[in-house]
Amino acid sequence: MINLWITDDDPFIRESLKLLMAMDPDIEVAGTSGSGEEALEAVREGGLPDVMLMDIRMPGCGGVEATKSLKQLAPSIQILVLTTFDDDDFIIEALKNGASGYLLKNIPPDRIIQGIKTVKDGNMLIHPDIARKLTGFIHAAPLSPAPASSAPVLSAHGLTQTEQTIVTKIADGLSNKEIAQELFLSEGTVKNYISDILGKLALRDRTQIAIFYWKQARP
After folding, report:
1. Cα-based distances in Å from 59 to 17, 55, 89, 175
2. Contact criterion met (CB below 8 Å) for 2 and 116
3. Per-residue pLDDT reduced to its tens digit, 81-123
4. Burial of 105 (0-12, 13-18, 19+ CB in 10 A)
5. 3-state class of 93 per DSSP?
6. Are 52 and 30 in contact, with CB atoms under 8 Å apart?
7. What is the greatest pairwise CA distance in the chain?
8. pLDDT, tens digit, for every residue of 122-132?
């Protein structure tokens, strides 16, 4: 069962999402909040959802700022940004602050539910329309093995060839299972590789691995 929290300043959207998400047998909506401040207060009082749907533009503490504070307060919470605004700057800032993914509100409910399940498993999720706009940061097609021009940056941090390849696949949004299948490894081995990569790059999570690749190692 996935414990879900919904944060949005529009009460109609909050209640609609609550009803729609609760229809899935794998999701339990633990609560809702109308602002970033309310979401932070709920977590401080002991609420610890697996996933939080987070609006970006809200009065007071917006979604980008709330994401940063929540990840500092409770790093285990996976935050899925859900908004009507497809602003590239907000996307990058949300990812930098620890968001696990980004979806637009105009997609079907089943896609939102799938997104919740995707980030719950520790994977990244970026809406294809947004990915296409981020041409300066991400490729549309998987990269394997790591491009030669990215190797010096990754090698300088002590990453092996296999670790470099895993970094590129994380940057392309592949899950641990998909990486394991492509590299003929077990999921446990992939998780161990990712732990080593995080240590070598001094990063917090796989979202930061992707951002590191997009901004520093990608040709």
Report:
1. 20, 11, 18, 34
2. yes
3. 988 776 777 877 888 788 888 888 888 888 899 889 988 877 7
4. middle
5. helix
6. no
7. 51
8. 777 776 556 55
Among residues 126, 161, 167, which one has the least CA distance to residue 143? 167
Q: Which amino acid is at 207?
A: T
List all residues 6 or more positions away from 43 whose beta carbon is below 8 Å from its beta carbon.
Answer: 70, 73, 74, 77
Among 19-23, 35-39, 90-94, 111-115, the range scoring the smallest mean pLDDT is: 90-94
Residues 55, 7 contacting (CB under 8 angstroms)? yes
The CA distance from 73 to 158, in Å, is 30
Which amino acid appears at position 18 of this protein? K
Residue 137 near residue 155 (C-beta atoms within 8 A): no
Which residues have a Cβ under 8 Å from the Cβ of 41 and sit 6 or more positions away?
A: 33
| Alpha-helical regions (H) of 87-186 | 88-96, 109-120, 128-133, 151-156, 161-171, 176-183
The reported pTM is 0.64
